[in-house]
Specification:
The protein is of the alpha/beta class. It has one domain: Rossmann fold (3-Layer(aba) Sandwich). The chain has six helices and nine strands. Strand 2, helix 2 and strand 3 form a beta-alpha-beta unit. The longest helix has 23 residues.
Length: 225
């Protein structure tokens, strides 16, 4: 499609976005494991990432060297169905391909402050993630970083006490920490995202625009344009 940035890739359907994302993840994982002995992936919540996880559950890969992290989490009880970690386990991690010691969930049941402090220690041993997956809300938010909200700089994990959508308390990797990645994939699907996409293309300062990795790609379906 004419007029789009060169790092945007347009697909017919959300399913096509998910399929392409998984194909890219597998290629990059193999490259990372050959080069550094491990592949570090930051996961995202949302419908399209969830489809990616369902596809990954059906794949064969060098799972023992995959290391899974989270971009954000809702401060809810550990088994609450609204938690990103629960959806992630149900779609993919439950099937046991990846060793438990390689799965690093956010302990958001501890509350924002303690959870953020704990997860900061977890991610600060990683110099640079291999891939960060990001979804985008209809307001342009990504992870639990919301438009108009101010977050501390020079810190890996931030707290959110006033999310526009429930639950109000969350923790999230910061803009800087999400951007410290070799590859950032932004997955945008659905007609409900059109206004935010227009704002993105107009150069508005949306949260998702603030995250830029060494390479940043946008995978979008045609209905979101």
């Amino acid at each position: 499609m004419n007029g789009l940035p060169t790092n945007w890739r347009v697909f017919d359907t959300p399913a096509d976005v998910a399929t392409h994302t998984v194909e890219q993840l597998r290629v990059l994982a193999d490259q990372a494991i050959r080069a550094r002995g491990r592949f570090t992936l930051v996961t995202a919540g949302g419908t399209t990432p969830q489809k990616c996880y369902e596809l990954l559950a059906e794949q064969q890969a060098d799972w023992a060297n995959w290391h899974i992290y989270m971009g954000d989490e809702r401060c809810l009880p550990k088994e609450d169905s609204e938690r990103n970690s629960v959806s992630l386990h149900q779609a993919w991690l439950f099937f046991g391909h990846i060793p438990d010691k390689n799965i690093h969930v956010m302990p958001a049941e501890l509350g924002p402050e303690l959870a953020a402090k704990s997860y900061q220690a977890t991610v600060d041993v990683i110099d640079r993630f291999d891939v960060v997956l990001l979804g985008m809300g209809e307001d342009g938010h990504t992870a639990s970083l919301f438009p108009g909200h101010v977050y501390p700089e020079d810190i890996s994990v931030v707290t959110e006490y006033h999310s526009p959508k429930p639950p109000p308390e969350r923790i999230s990797l910061s803009y800087e920490r999400l951007g410290r990645s070799r590859h950032v994939f932004k997955l945008i699907t659905g007609a409900g995202k059109r206004e935010a996409v227009k704002q993105l293309l107009d150069g508005d300062d949306l949260p998702i625009q603030r995250v830029q990795g060494d390479e940043t790609l946008v995978f979008i379906d045609s209905s979101a344009l």
